[in-house]
Each structure stands twice: as structure tokens, then as C-alpha cells.
Amino acid sequence: MNASEFRRRGKEMVDYMANYMEGIEGRQVYPDVEPGYLRPLIPAAAPQEPDTFEDIINDVEKIIMPGAASPACTELETVMMDWLGKMLELPKAFLNEKAGEGGGVIQMVATLGTTTCCSFDNLLEVGPIWLITDYRGSNKVNEALLQRINSAKKIHLVPCHLRDKFVLRFAICSRTVESAHVQRAWEHIKELAADVLRAERE
């Protein structure tokens, strides 16, 4: 890739990312894919010849983006670590493949190593990064509510167990989230919660 093509492709990538951010509300929050979906869709070994830029972008859109929330990133990393293991001619026991018991993912060690420094940040300077709200009801109601919320695929909640209580966690972790998004999500939760409680009474 020469400088001219690099400049052109770089602009195309910026456009791709900007279009993604602008259209993110139209994308599905929770993926339809199941864990393990990615490996059969990409080569078992690193390609010998480079793909075209268009083919790479098409693969990203068709193969990676449907599982972008999870589990695409981790699965892609494990496959590529297998590529590396095969290039180094490591024993199969070091690979993620079915026959192996090893494997790994790509770790950004410097980032992970400095995460604890965030505890000293001035949150007023950092800005509104996250919000966590726990919703507590009976275990049965919360489990039913979680199933309805995640099945609707408009937002995605994760549960946790606190002293034998099944608690739903509403976490907002993106700097691009606006108050209107939070309000819309909260109204969605309240609507589905009302449906669950109505079904309980019936």
C-alpha cells in the first residue's frame, strides 16, 4: 500500500467509524450469534496472500459487526492467537482449537497495569463516564424481567448475585450517551417491568 492509497483508505476508515457512530441507534444492541460462531467463518490459518481492503471491510461488516457487542472481539483474538501459534509451530496443546487445552487472548498489559490509577482521577475533569443503578425485586420477578429486556434487544442488562438476591444492573459506560438515551432506556425498563408485574398478578 503506497502513501496515496494509505491516505485514501484512512479517510474511508474515518468515514466508516463516523457512519457507525451516527447510525449506532439503528443497530441491534444484543447479538443473535452464539459463542463459537466466528471460527468457522474465517480461515484456520493466517492467509498467505493479503486480502483487498474491500474484502476486509466486507468481512468486518458481515462477520464481526453482527457480534460486535460480544463475543466477536474475543473470538477473533483467540483465532488469531492460534494463527500465531501455528506460525511459531507450537504444539497443538498451546492452541485454542478443539484439540488443544491452551490458547489465549491479546492483552493490553500497559492499560491493565495502569487501571488502578483511575482511582485518583478528578471525576469532574474526567466527565460523565459511567452510571450504575441496581434494580431489586424478587428473584423470580427479576429473572423474568431480565429475560424480557434482553429478548427485546433494545438495551442489554447484566445480573449479579448479592447475598442470594438476583439483582439487575443498569450500567452506562459510554461517553457518547446522552440523557435522552438514558431516559429512553429507563422508560423501556419500566414498561417491561410493568408487564412482568401484571403477569405475576394474573
TrEMBL record:
It comes from Homo sapiens. Its EC number is 4.1.1.28. Its cofactor is pyridoxal 5'-phosphate. It comes from the Eukaryota. Keywords: Catecholamine biosynthesis, Decarboxylase, Lyase, Pyridoxal phosphate. Pathway: Catecholamine biosynthesis; dopamine biosynthesis; dopamine from L-tyrosine: step 2/2. Signal peptide: none annotated. It holds the Pfam family Pyridoxal_deC. Homodimer. This is Aromatic-L-amino-acid decarboxylase.
